[in-house]
Amino acid sequence: MSADRLNSATSPAPPVSPTSPAFWRSPLRGPRLTALLGVVLLAGVTLLFVTGMLSYAAYNPNLAGGVNDQTPDKGLLGFYLFDWPTDPAWLYRVTQGLHVTLGVALVPILLAKLWSVIPKLFALPPARSVGHALERLSLLLLVGGALFEFVTGILNIQLEYLFPGSFYPLHFYGAWVFTGAFVAHVVLRFPRTLRALRERTDPGRGGPQRTADDDTGLVAPRPDPPTVSRRGALALVGGGSLLLLATTAGQSIGGWWRRTALLAPHGGPDPGSGPNGFQINKTAASRGIRPQDTGDDWRLTIEVGGPGAPPGGSGRRVRLSRTDLLKLPQHEAALPIACVEGWSTDDQRWSGVRLRDLAALVGLGEQPPDVLVESLQLHGAFRLAALRDNQVRDPRSLLALRVGGEDLSPDHGYPARIIVPAAPGVLNTKWVARMTFGEW
Ligand SMILES: Nc1nc2c(c(=O)[nH]1)N[C@H]1C(S)=C(S)[C@@H](COP(=O)(O)O)O[C@H]1N2
Ligand SMILES: [Mo]
Predict the structure, then answer these.
(1) Which strands sit side by side in the sheet containing 300-305, from one edge to the other?
(2) pLDDT-based confidence at 9, cuts 50/70/90?
(3) Which string of DSSP letters, residue by residue, matches 95-155?
(4) In whole angstroms, how far apart are CA 236 and each of 104, 203, 240, 415?
(5) Choice from 258, 280, 382, 435 to test ligand 1 binding pocket (greatest atom count within 8 A of CB)
(6) pLDDT at 258 over 70
(7) Cys-Cys link to 344, which of 93, 115, 177, 181 (CB 3.0-4.6 A)?
(8) What is the atom index within ligand 1 of the atom nearest the CA of 377?
(9) Strand 331-335 with 300-305, pairing
(10) Does residue 398 contact residue 354 with C-beta atoms inside 8 Å?
(11) Mean pLDDT, rounded, for 307-335
């Protein structure tokens, strides 16, 4: 150990404020640590952005009337929207499972990255030039945006009622603000990051870095003696991240792995056992569905909407009881439910009537159009959902009456619910009362 370092380790430090570089003593900080964490975040955040934007597209936000759209003022931000496919059936399980699992697992990396650059938050003067002021402003958006996206995302999967109805717009617009700042940051910092990754200026890898050639302001000018190597610190952060990954991923992988999902939200109602024994999102009681609404008097109304529909149209509107529906050709489809919250079920064996067969009942046999599905549920989100024509036409898209060979339980949508391949759970409307094909 050099005399200089021995000295800095033993003499009492004079009082300094966080605005002084000498206040920050960790020998771990330096361009290399920041760069390593930065490239992990670059890959991770890019994947979060892509899967997040896919999730928005999967909601069919651009269908007529915007019934599914939680961000109607998106304007140009919806430029990329496309028709969400119905294949493969596990598509949304994977994209949204990735989005949520990755978001949770990146938390330690994000915190470590912020820790690694915290001296810069306090650096004085606040702005040396207009350019410097703009750069700091963009960092404010970057850090604020990152914290905002992670906090809203995690609160939504853990306690969704914190933002009644406003989670989607907050998380969506926040994502664009954050991404704008993120792209600017990556472009500005990429050369420095590459340089830091290539260079090995520090002796013995884990040791303190030389301040002399540090133009980043990250290296402590008077470092404390190291208590852990940089490798050790990275292993700690990476280990924390892997631990979160391992205790979250099971809710999306399903099967045996479900029991490893210790961190998945468990506050939901107990689904019980048997064919209906899989995760329940909202119970019938909690949505105000009373037993008398779903008894023998329940009828499903199917109609053709829009100007083309004759008023009170004979033959263009039918009302069916559950017994009527059970007399129609029954089909089976093995499909999962995949929620925006990241959890998904294994494939369930649903059976019921094909959506396209229901369209044919109101004279829309050949190429059935989009459909608006309405629930018996009178209030709250998700009582309405619009499905696109490709979803209506898929032979696996059902108005399900049974699951796993048993009648649907009240909590899973008895007397009838929608199930569509590859779609987010929110489009699988429970307690269906009315379906309007065409325009509405
Ligand atoms: N009427 C109605 N249908 C609904 C919902 C709802 O709140 N009301 N929740 C949706 C959501 S967000 C999901 S993930 C699935 C969950 O279905 P499950 O409870 O049968 O697992 O139902 C969907 N169908
Ligand atoms: Mo959901």
Answers:
(1) 317-320, 300-305, 432-438, 371-375, 384-387
(2) low
(3) HHHHHHHHHHHTHHHHHHHHHHHHHHHH-SSS-SSHHHHHHHHHHHHHHHHHHHHHHHHHH
(4) 16, 21, 6, 51
(5) 382
(6) yes
(7) 93
(8) 1
(9) unpaired
(10) yes
(11) 84
Task: Give me the phi and psi of 273, to 5 degrees please.
Answer: -120, -175
Distance, CA of 55 to CA of 156 (rounded, Å): 14
Measuring CA to CA, which residue among 65, 290, 68, 35 is closest to residue 185? 35
- Asked whether the beta carbons of 208 and 33 are under 8 A apart, the reply is no
Nearest CA to ligand 1 atom 7: 382
Does pLDDT of 81 surpass 70? yes
Our answer on whether the CB atom of 252 is closer than 6 Å to any ligand 1 atom is no
As a whole number of angstroms, the distance between CA 371 and CA 356 comes to: 10
- Boundaries of every domain in the chain: 21-256, 285-438
425 lines ligand 1 (CB under 6 A): yes
| 28 CB-near residues (< 8 Å, 6+ apart) | 116, 226, 228, 230, 233
pTM of the model: 0.91
Structure tokens at 411: 């909590």
Residue 389 — φ and ψ, nearest 5°? -55, -40
H or E stretch at 318? strand 317-320
Token pair, residue 144, equals 């604020």
285-438: CATH topology is Sulfite Oxidase; Chain A, domain 2 (3.90.420)
Sign, CA dihedral 61-65-70-72, equals positive
